[in-house]
Batch of 2 targets.
Target 1
Amino acid sequence: MTEERKKRVAIIASHGTLDMAYPPLLIATGAVAMDMEASIYFTFYGLQILKKGGADKLQVAPLANPAMPMPVPNIVGMLPGMTAVATGIMKNMFKSANAASLGELLELARELGVHLVACQMTMDALGIKREELIDGLEYGGVATLLEFCSQDAITFAF
């Protein structure tokens, strides 16, 4: 009798904004809660999520984001201070819905055993040092991602 391997979810996180940081963490923690193996590969600006204290400092830009639920025209997003306003609105929406903060989700992902992989090539290119990132990470290149994906992983990119 052969042992059945767990289903796998591979997620690429390449954006470092508040609205793009939630989906990878929510999907990964949900997958692990459903007894799946999950890995998030953080590359380019997605590495901002992994910076020490960085997850809860991420912002959302209202400009060129027409789906942003703000009671003002999208063009107002270009005014100084509107990124802070939009970020505050989004954080308050999540808080009033009793949703976890990004920092809490990131900690939960670590506790649940989600593979959190920082792209070494991007770190080198952007001058990001391991000391700047949270503890408990794995480091690898595209081969690390592809190896995980090659074993029948459902794959998402954000």
Target 2
Amino acid sequence: MMNSDNSWIVAWSDSLGFPEAMPQWIYAAAALICTFCFVIVPCGALMSYFERKLAADLQARVGPNRAGPAGILQPIADLLKLLQKESRTEWNWKENIWLSVHTMALYSTLAVLPLGSMAVLVNTEMSVFLPFWAALVLALGTMLLGLGQNSVPGWFGGIRVAAQTLAGSFPALISLLCTGVRSGSFRWSSLAESQGFSPWDWTLLANPFQMIAFSVFVMSGLVLLAIPPLDGGLSMSDIHGGVASHLYGRRLSLFQFGRFYGFFFWSVITVVLFLGAWDLPVSLVNSLKSMGAHQLLALSELLWLLVKTFALMLLIIWIAKVNSRSRVDQITDFVWRVLSPFSLAALVGSSLWAGWRAF
């Protein structure tokens, strides 16, 4: 279902000179293609560079410095290197099928990716819950990708990914409900409007229970999507890479970029739910709207959202670099014994807080 507020579609079509009778599905297809090509891919290259530089600083190394000025072209060099590699194993049709399922499930979330008040394609009461469906399908595709490799690392990797996904989805869903209790809706626009530009207006600082929900949501996402340091199902030494043990060249680059996108997508959702979304100062927004600068407003909201998203991702990467990976049994035990009770406590506390303020 498309966004019920189509004013942003009219603004974009008028500014870009599109015909008035153009079907909405063409707008949707163009929006998805532009989002992937001009937002996701550049963000992936930048985060790859920042991650390598951060790791080098923590380990007293120089980091990328040969490919381009200050090594800025290193992500492109890495991609070209991967594309030139050939698989050393025979062609496996099952592996290719489940890699395709994995990829399609992952990038289906582009349709619900909130990138600004004028860049929300799907804005319904179910918008926030669609990523969970995609994450579960993604975990299924990842598990079957491992099982389809006919190898011990693939089998164990797939089973461990399934165990982590089932464990991480419950506290993440409960923490998400806490934000809906405060805003009164699960629409992306409502969640953003319930916050503000100032950190004091963010959901994170609305009450102590929202701070607990934020912490649980972030850690549950790391478990759900197997993001370091909680990626025991994919990177443990005893299974030699797990699901990705037989992936090389183009397939490995596709799988690795998919893992980045999952991390990026979860970080964007976290920012929208808890960290003020794309909200800019009200005076600035009113000035841009009065001038008719809709593109400048959309670009400013996108850049502000990406700044907070990158800051959150770099913080998580920094924590991952200075902490060792945990075993899968330790991760699932931590989720069920710690994160799940805290998420339920946060939901009960947020509900009581909202009821107290209402009366």
